[in-house]
C-alpha cells in the first residue's frame, strides 16, 4: 500500500512509493529555492545599505568642507545627515534632519568678534544647494568665554558664586576712581537679546559705604549687555553662568547659510 501524502493537488490519497519519493524531492527543491531567494534578497539589502551609507558619507564630507570654507571654524566640523534611504533624500536635495558640531565658531556679537566654543546644532528640513544651506529650524548650544563676554560688555566679567556673574566697574567716590565689584544674576531678555544684571550687589575694597550710596552707584553703572546681532537670524533663548563660561541656548527658523 502507498503512503498518504499530499502531492500535486488539493486532495489527499494513497500514493505509490516512487511517487512519494518524487514528491519529497520536489518539496526539498522548493524549500532550497526559497532559501536561496531569501539569501539573495538579504545580500542585495546589505549591499544597498552599504551603498547608501557610502553616498551619505560622501555628502557629509562635502557639506563639512563647504561649511569649513564658509564659517571658518577652529577645527574640522562634524556633520551628520539624516534620511533613510539617503539616496532618495539626496535626489530631492533635502534631508529631514542634520547635526553639526564644531570646537569653535567665530561670529560677530553686538559688533564684536567672538568665538563660540563647543557648538552643537540640530536642524530639521535641511535643503542643500551649491551655494547655500537652508535650515527649516535649528536649535543649538554653545559656550561664550568670559574674556569674549568682557569684550562685548566693555567691562571685565567673570564667574561669581553659583548662578551669578562678577562684573568690575570703575566708579568715582569722593573724587577718587575706584574699582567696584558687582555680583549679579544674569537674566536674558529674549525680546531685546540683552543680558540684564538682576539683584546686583556692590562692594568697594577699603570703603564702608552706606546702602543708599552703594545702590546709587549700582544704578549709575550697571547696564544691560547687548548680545544681539548673531549671524543668520539666530536668537538666544537661555543663558547659564558656569565656571568655564556663559552657556548659551539658541534657536532659529529658515536660516540661510551661504556656502560661497
Account of the 3D structure:
By secondary structure, the protein is of the alpha+beta class. Helix content is 31%, strand content 45%. A six-stranded antiparallel beta sheet has the order 3-4-5-6-13-12. Strands 7-8-9-10-11 form a five-stranded antiparallel beta sheet. It is elongated, with a radius of gyration of 33 Å.
What are the secondary-structure elements, in order, as H or E? EEHEHEEEHEEEEHEEE
Overall shape: it is elongated
Low-confidence runs: 1-13, 32-49
End-to-end Cα distance: 86 Å
Structural class: alpha+beta
Figure out the total of helices: 4
**Mean pLDDT score:** 81
Radius of gyration from the CA trace? 33 Å
Number of strands: 13
Give structural attributes.
alpha+beta, single chain, 6-stranded antiparallel beta sheet, 5-stranded antiparallel beta sheet, 13 strands, 31% helix, 260 residues
Write a concise synopsis of the structure shown.
The chain is an alpha+beta fold. The chain is 31% helix and 45% strand.
Question: What is this structure's SSE topology?
Answer:
Layout: E1 3-6, E2 12-15, H1 17-71, E3 78-81, H2 86-92, E4 94-109, E5 112-128, E6 132-144, H3 146-153, E7 157-159, E8 165-173, E9 176-189, E10 194-203, H4 211-221, E11 225-226, E12 235-242, E13 245-258
Antiparallel strand pairs: 1-2, 3-4, 4-5, 5-6, 6-13, 7-8, 8-9, 9-10, 10-11, 12-13
Amino acid at each position: 500500500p502507498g503512503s498518504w501524502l499530499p502531492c500535486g493537488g488539493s486532495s489527499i490519497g494513497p500514493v505509490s512509493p516512487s511517487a512519494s519519493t518524487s514528491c519529497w524531492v520536489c518539496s526539498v527543491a522548493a524549500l532550497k529555492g526559497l532559501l536561496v531567494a531569501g539569501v539573495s534578497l538579504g545580500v542585495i539589502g546589505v549591499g544597498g545599505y552599504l551603498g547608501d551609507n557610502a553616498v551619505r558619507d560622501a555628502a557629509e564630507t562635502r557639506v563639512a568642507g563647504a561649511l569649513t570654507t564658509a564659517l571658518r571654524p577652529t577645527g574640522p566640523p562634524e556633520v551628520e545627515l539624516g534620511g533613510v534611504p539617503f539616496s532618495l533624500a539626496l535626489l530631492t536635495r533635502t534631508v529631514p534632519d542634520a547635526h553639526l558640531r564644531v570646537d569653535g565658531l567665530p561670529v560677530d556679537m553686538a559688533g564684536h568678534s567672538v568665538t563660540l566654543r563647543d557648538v552643537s546644532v540640530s536642524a530639521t528640513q535641511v535643503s542643500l544647494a551649491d551655494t547655500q544651506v537652508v535650515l527649516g529650524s535649528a536649535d543649538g548650544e554653545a559656550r561664550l568665554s568670559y574674556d569674549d563676554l568682557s569684550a562685548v560688555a566693555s567691562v571685565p566679567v567673570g564667574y561669581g558664586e553659583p548662578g551669578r556673574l562678577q562684573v568690575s566697574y570703575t566708579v568715582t567716590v569722593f573724587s577718587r576712581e575706584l574699582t567696584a565689584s558687582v555680583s549679579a544674576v544674569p537674566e536674558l531678555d529674549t525680546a531685546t537679546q540683552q543680558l540684564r544684571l538682576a539683584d546686583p550687589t556692590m562692594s568697594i575694597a577699603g570703603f564702608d559705604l552706606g546702602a543708599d550710596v552703594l545702590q546709587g552707584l549700582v544704578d549709575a553703572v550697571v547696564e544691560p549687555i547687548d548680545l544681539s546681532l548673531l549671524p543668520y537670524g539666530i536668537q538666544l533663548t537661555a543663558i547659564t553662568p558656569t565656571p568655564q563660561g556663559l552657556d548659551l541656548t539658541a534657536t532659529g527658523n529658515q536660516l540661510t547659510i551661504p556656502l560661497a
